């Protein structure tokens, strides 16, 4: 490829991604109410709470919650956005903290202090010509709604969510164009408390509850899309999938079929959001599992008419599966279980590094939906060790990102997959979602804060900072 062919399409949106609960801190400031993510501790109880097996209603002194202060983006957003601008960001993905806007979730009037905060954040972006990309719900449900109606297991959540969305669309209609309805919507099947504020009592039909909750989110997403287009027809609305293609452990047709089924568990959500109806395979499977979905009159029409404009997704790793239950006892991984792929290396957290898998995923998604893609999360979670001057030489991160960006470039330029942009995950160090700790870092900017919460919160660009700056200024040409 010569230099000319090497560069990304004009207007490609390079940038970074954050989520409110992992960066803002100030968890009870400005009238903010308590949210699910505020009560999920770090440490050994984190997974039992996130999966809904362990019930918590509030915070307690036996646990640690690094997200309560996080990196204090709430007070330092100006400094952080200026650093993103220095790297040349064209876009910044953030999410809205639901309980800043509706502290309990069921109020009729929004909290002005919360709305004003995001006005300030968007104004800072606009000042630097950074296009905001906004996730309406990123692992975030008001605790009041969890305790009163059981989170997304209740149909009432649709109204609360649509009310939130309408408030945001009206307020920011001239500042924000790109919206994502739910972060990693398929996460509700894997970690239902973080995905939907759902926890279970013993003896409950867990699958039934999860799929009914998923239906509520799918209807809410379509209803919000309808509201968005009513309020500003120029809005672009995307779905968001935790993606990562599944390989078959062997070429035995049984394994290949199993891999296809595993991918469909995730595609199911996007099939509804993008194609506008439950796919037949999903309807058949629900029936076989004895799951009966309660759908209201108008739901099918809502899903059919109000589909998304683009497909966004996170990609960190590929997965490997087998049809043989004995082989599957060897799976690893903390969110999506996977067999170890002998052809791949893995991160310190066992996430298998597969740049070509990103190209495969992009092709699979575009073949399936024929809508533009937006890669809204990708990156390497690693332990960074600053030298005596506080500088992090993160060549390992540069290697990971550059290989993935090259694979993305091949998908776009060689395979012809239309792609709006790329926002690398955790563009400044933030609290990790799966561990709740600071130790697992993704950023181009180091934040001085450790797992115990100690540190000055000082921001220091890492080696990858200047590297990404060059990637952006050359529009991918240096890759
Ligand atoms: C995705 C989430 C993010 C995020 C990322 C990395 O699932 O959307 O919120 O944090 O994964 O995960 P982790 O922080 O656990 O490394």
UniProtKB/TrEMBL annotation:
GO molecular function: 6-phospho-beta-glucosidase activity
Keyword set includes Lipoprotein: no
Identification of the protein by name: 6-phospho-beta-glucosidase
Family: Belongs to the glycosyl hydrolase 1 family.
Family annotation (InterPro entries): GH (IPR017853), GH_1_N_CS (IPR033132), Glyco_hydro_1 (IPR001360), Glyco_hydro_1_AS (IPR018120)
Native organism: Fusibacter paucivorans
NCBIfam families in the record: PRK09589.1 (NF007154), PRK09593.1 (NF007158), PRK09852.1 (NF007356)
Pfam families listed in its UniProt record: Glyco_hydro_1
Catalytic residues in the record: 377
EC assignment: 3.2.1.86
Enzyme type, top EC level: hydrolase
Keywords: Glycosidase, Hydrolase
Domain of life: Bacteria
């Amino acid at each position: 490829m010569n230099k000319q062919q090497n560069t990304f399409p004009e207007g490609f949106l390079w940038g970074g991604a954050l989520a409110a609960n992992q960066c803002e801190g100030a968890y009870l400031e400005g009238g903010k109410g308590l949210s699910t993510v505020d009560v999920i501790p770090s440490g050994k109880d984190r997974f039992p709470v996130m999966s809904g097996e362990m019930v918590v209603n509030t915070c307690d002194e036996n646990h640690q919650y690094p997200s309560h202060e996080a990196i204090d983006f709430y007070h330092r957003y100006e400094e952080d956005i200026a650093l993103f601008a220095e790297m040349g960001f064209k876009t910044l993905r953030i999410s809205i903290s639901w309980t800043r806007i509706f502290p309990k979730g069921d109020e009729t009037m929004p909290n002005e202090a919360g709305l004003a905060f995001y006005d300030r954040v968007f104004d800072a972006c606009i000042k630097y010509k950074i296009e905001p990309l906004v996730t309406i719900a990123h692992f975030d449900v008001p605790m009041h709604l969890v305790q009163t109606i059981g989170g997304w297991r209740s149909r009432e959540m649709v109204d609360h969510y649509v009310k939130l969305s309408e408030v945001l669309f009206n307020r920011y209609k001239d500042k924000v164009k790109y919206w994502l309805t739910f972060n990693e919507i398929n996460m509700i099947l894997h970690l239902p408390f973080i995905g939907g504020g759902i926890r279970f009592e013993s003896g409950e039909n867990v699958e039934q509850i999860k799929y009914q909750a998923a239906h509520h989110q799918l209807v809410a997403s379509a209803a919000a899309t309808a509201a968005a287009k009513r309020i500003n027809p120029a809005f672009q609305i995307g779905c968001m999938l935790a993606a990562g293609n599944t390989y078959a452990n062997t070429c035995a047709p049984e394994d290949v079929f199993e891999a296809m089924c595993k991918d469909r568990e995730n595609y199911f959500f996007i099939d509804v959001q993008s194609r506008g109806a439950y796919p037949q395979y999903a309807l058949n499977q629900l029936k076989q599992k004895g799951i009966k979905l309660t759908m209201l009159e108008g739901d099918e029409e809502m899903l059919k008419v109000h589909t998304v404009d683009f497909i966004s997704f996170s990609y960190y790793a590929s997965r490997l599966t087998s049809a043989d239950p004995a082989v599957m006892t060897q799976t690893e991984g903390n969110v999506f279980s996977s067999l170890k792929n002998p052809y791949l290396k893995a991160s310190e957290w066992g996430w298998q590094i597969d740049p070509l898998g990103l190209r495969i995923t992009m092709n699979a998604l575009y073949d399936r939906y024929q809508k533009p893609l937006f890669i809204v999360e990708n990156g390497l979670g690693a332990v960074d060790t600053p030298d005596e001057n506080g500088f992090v030489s993160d060549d390992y991160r540069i290697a990971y990102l550059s290989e993935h960006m090259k694979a993305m470039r091949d998908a776009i330029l060689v395979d012809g997959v239309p792609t709006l942009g790329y926002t690398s995950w955790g563009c400044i160090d933030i609290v990790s979602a799966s561990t709740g700790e600071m130790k697992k870092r993704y950023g181009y900017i180091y934040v001085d804060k450790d797992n115990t919460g100690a540190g000055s919160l000082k921001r220091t660009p890492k080696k990858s900072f200047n590297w990404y700056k060059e990637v952006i200024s050359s529009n991918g040409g240096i890759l």
